[in-house]
Amino acid sequence: MAPSRRTKRVVASQPGFLNLKSSSGAAGLPSIRRKRVNKNKKKNWNKHSDINDVTEFLEDVRHQERTIGGLLSDKSDDNLFFLDVGQPKKAEQKVAGFASAPLHHVSCYLLYFPLLSHLSPNHLFCPHPTSVLAYQQPNAKKLRRIGQKAEQLAAKGVVPRRQKQLLNRRPADRTAKKAVTEANNNPDREYYDIWGQEYTADPWYLQQTGKKRVKRPEKLNEKPSVLPAVEVIAPGGSYNPDFFSHQALLQEAHEVEVKKQKEEDKIERQLAVNKEHIATEETILREQVEGLVEEENEEEAPNEEEEGVAVGAITVAEKKTERQRKKERAYKVKEQLRQANRYQNDKRQQLFQLRSIKTSIKQEEQETKDKQKQRKAKQEAQKAQPRRLGKLKFKAQDMEVQLSDELAGSLRQLKPEGSVLKDRFKSLQKRNLIEPRERAKFKRRLKLKYVEKRAFREIT
Amino acid sequence: MGGLQKKKYERGSATNYITRNKARKKLQLSLPDFRRLCILKGIYPHEPKHKKKVNKGSTAPRTFYLLKDIRFLLHEPIVGKFREYKVFVRKLKKAYGKTEWSSVERLKENKPAYKLDHIIKERYPSFIDALRDIDDALCMCFLFSTFARTGKCHVQTIQLCRRLTVEWMNYVIASRALKKVFISIKGIYYQAEAMGQLITWLVPYQFSHDHPTDVDYRVMATFTEFYTTLLGFINFRLYHSLNLLYPPKVSWTLKQSQMKLSALSASLARVVSTAEEDEAELDQFPVDGEDMANMEAREKEQKQEEAQKKLFEGLKFFLNREVPRESLAFLIRCFGGEVSWDKSVCIGSTYEVKDETITHQIVDRPNIDKQYINRYYIQPQWVYDCVNAKIILPVEDYFLGVTLPPHLSPFVEEKDGDYVPPEKLKIMALQRGEKPAHEQEDEEEEEEEDEEEEEEEEEDDNEEEGDDGEEAEEKNLKKMEEQRSQGKSLSVKVTAGKVKVENPARLEQEEKAEEKRLAIMMMKKKEKYLYDKIMFGKKRKVREANKLAAKRKAHDDAEKSKKKARK
């Protein structure tokens, strides 16, 4: 290695050496004065010796070797220059980009496309390099053998395994779409036995992969109301009803109406203006002269007030005498004793009242039981009632009923009453499946602005 | 006095509930999506017992859900689909706005859709659970199938509903499961029994819709979406229980066959030959004497039921164009009759009016021009009444132009002592097998209906009133008189003594009555009081029923006299 380096260095110092990188030489000479350092220490050598020029040179040499396959200065003129005889047609197709510019000097060409260099132009229009390595292929013999063998086999009609595998591979169907989930309301949708199939996947696997469904709580399967889904209309609702059942239904409808009417009347009554409160001429006049006419009663009032103050004064309690206190204390003790005696006596007496006590206890128990029963019955009744689930209360729909003269004589003339859609909707509300709700009102966000159109304005 | 001060509303019922808006936010869904999710998953709002506590002191009316329910909803995969759909709509809007048609196409191709199968399985773990909840599904599907193609709901939904309802009706026909039918002013109620479950549904009349404005169509559509899925799976299972091919067999082009099916005149294709699935005989078990009677009764009942299922077998009906075709065809085929209609009315008619073998023609107009002599012309109510009475009723009351007897509701069940309308009594008598003697017993009812006969019988009316027993006695007396007149003198003879027949049944009855009397005597005072009260209530009921009956009679008499006066 050492001798070669030396030679290179020697070459570089010679005036005939061509530098591939233009910048390397021109890079300014250090005009700063050299720092003086001791050169007897290896550390200083490393630190203070300027090896830039050397590294640059080495870089350049490596570059030249990489691109041209030797130093430029070593090459003969034949290798570097060639006779321009126009552009061959093939080349034009292959390297359309730089074929347009006439190439005269390889070096400048190489300068711009160093990496492409050994690919083409050398090969195409340069004469073969003298080096053997230039046209030796690695493993050439082996490759040639393989090629020959393949030709032989092809002649026999034997297809190599790899190709066979490729041929056998099923062509990917690009046109097939992903499995699309069809809409739920597709009229031709398929159904299957959903209750027949058992668990297909291993529960342990599902749990570990996080695909296991959360179990539905049992309580959710309870219905929120005990009412049946379909409530059959009363027998009076038949299209050709029995007289009495029809009357019964009419009666029921009538009662509903009466109740409604009563409520309306009640509100009206409450809102009605009291006649006494309406201003008459007299009251208006009185109001107008209020405070202008002096009244006689006013003078008497203050006197009364003074008397009241005198009555309300605090009276100071007089001090009790010693005797009084003693007497009081004795009385208190006596009273206590009496109470205790009385209590004792009562207790003793209760022994003889056992029967009446028993009855009273029984009575109480009976009462609580009755109350319990009542409460339970009330709760049961509540279950069938619609609950208050939101802002609005459930409002039952109007009863479907046909008056006697509306009844049709035959099925053909029958006029259906009410709407089944509404009936179903109300039934859902009644069974607490959905909350009664009002339709959302349309609210204008921005105020409308009215502008008179010009054409219109001109007329008016 | 140690410890932290307890904060309000951090335990108890306040933590068990969540308001709707909070729940919605927790799930990150819009309100319509939230409602839809709740309906699909079967999660309903809940009214708390102490609203003020739950509402953190406020008394404002709010909708509450149980917190646990909402937590459960968080695991639902459909929630993700809803969000995806929201994004899809946004993208589509944008693409439309930019008029990027290719991306619109691409987006539409990849429209996110969801399945409800897992929810069905989750809500109804077993088939019978689902069958119990089918009433609602049927009502909704029948309702939607009658909708016109207005913008109120998706056309595809209507078609699907139509398909499912037709499939259901065909199942009912194939299994002969129909029990009751009631024509009301609202619609027609049907009741069938499938796998031991009584199923009631309501079918609206065709073309009777004025779309009410106060119904939330979106909610209804969501329910329908769920119910169509449910009904489809149930239909599949039911068809397979009868060894029928599930999507009913398609013979021609799809469209035509569906129409044919919906015409209800085609029978269904069987997977297995019919011979195999003959009715299995009831297994006989050795039983005690006590159970024997029970068993016999049950057997008898079953036989009766079998007979009822073949009510219209051998009869051939023809429907005129003015009668409700679908309902009648369904009914007649449910009980084994043959049915056809005019070719121009609907596809699927099997024979024409001219067919000589037709036994009944159903007509709903006052008169008809050309009448065949070998068939009955009856009004449609006859078919409905026959189904409810479970026997073939006499056709006379239902002839052309005759005032029909009232159509009674089969859904009312009278207890003893209740008032029973006379028409029902008559039907009950017919059911017991008593022949209605036209000339004698029922003349009162007959009179109403057969106006022609009325006048002829008018004279007989007064004489022939009376009980069976009296008549028999009278006959005996007459005979004796005749004999007397013939023989002129009474022949005095010693006749052989007759053995007094002791009726064991009667004896038993007497014994029972005696026992009861004694038992009443032995009652405690308190019980006696209660017993008396009950008996009084019963008697009152009977009295009321009698009163109603008397009223009815008075009403009928008044009507009759009015009629006579008119004549």
Automatic annotation (TrEMBL), chain A:
One of its GO terms (biological process) is rRNA processing. Its main location: nucleus. Keywords: Nucleus, Ribosome biogenesis. Pfam families: Nop53 (PF07767). GO terms for cellular component: nucleolus; nucleoplasm. Residues 294-308 have a biased composition (Acidic residues). Signal peptide: none annotated. May play a role in ribosome biogenesis. This is Ribosome biogenesis protein NOP53. InterPro entries: Nop53/GLTSCR2. It comes from Sander lucioperca. Belongs to the NOP53 family.
From TrEMBL, chain B:
Residues 431-512, 542-567 are annotated as: Disordered. Its main location: nucleus. Residues 440-473 have a biased composition (Acidic residues). PROSITE patterns: BRCT. Residues 474-485, 499-512 have a biased composition (Basic and acidic residues). InterPro entries: BRCT_dom (IPR001357), BRCT_dom_sf (IPR036420), PES (IPR010613). Keywords: Coiled coil, Nucleus, Ribosome biogenesis, rRNA processing. GO terms for biological process: maturation of 5.8S rRNA from tricistronic rRNA transcript (SSU-rRNA, 5.8S rRNA, LSU-rRNA); maturation of LSU-rRNA from tricistronic rRNA transcript (SSU-rRNA, 5.8S rRNA, LSU-rRNA). Gene3D superfamilies: BRCT domain (3.40.50.10190). It is found in: Nucleus, Nucleolus; Nucleus, Nucleoplasm. The keyword Iron does not apply. Component of the PeBoW complex, composed of BOP1, PES1 and WDR12. Within the PeBoW complex BOP1 interacts directly with PES1 and WDR12. The PeBoW complex also associates with the 66S pre-ribosome. Component of the PeBoW complex, composed of BOP1, PES1 and WDR12. The complex is held together by BOP1, which interacts with PES1 via its N-terminal domain and with WDR12 via a high-affinity interaction between the seven-bladed beta-propeller domains of the 2 proteins. The PeBoW complex associates with the 66S pre-ribosome. The PeBoW complex also associates with DDX27, PES1 interacts directly with DDX27. Interacts with IRS1 and UBTF. May interact with MAP1B. PANTHER family: PESCADILLO - RELATED, PESCADILLO HOMOLOG. Component of the PeBoW complex, which is required for maturation of 28S and 5.8S ribosomal RNAs and formation of the 60S ribosome. Belongs to the pescadillo family. This is Pescadillo homolog.
